[in-house]
Amino acid sequence: MGKRISLHVEEQMLSDLMRFTGETTPTRAIHKAIDELIERERRVRTEELIKMAGTIEFDEEWLAQRRREHPGAY
Fold first, then answer.
1. CA-CA 20 to 30 A from 26: which of 45, 63, 65, 70?
2. How far lies 4's CA from each of 7, 28, 29, 47, in Å?
3. What is the pLDDT of residues 23-69, one digit of tens each?
């Protein structure tokens, strides 16, 4: 179930959004735009992580050292 909210959106912006998304109602157009934005951001962030593969060195001793310095915290 979604959360009902009120938005103030300019008519021209809504018209453009509906035209660009191909949707016939403002609600469907907004949902589609949000879904597409979220999907794009997930893809971009995943690609950024993939590019970082092999560039980060992990000190395996780090956690053991933290446990010695802060017993009971980990």
1. 45
2. 10, 14, 16, 33
3. 999 999 999 999 999 999 999 999 998 988 888 777 778 888 888 89
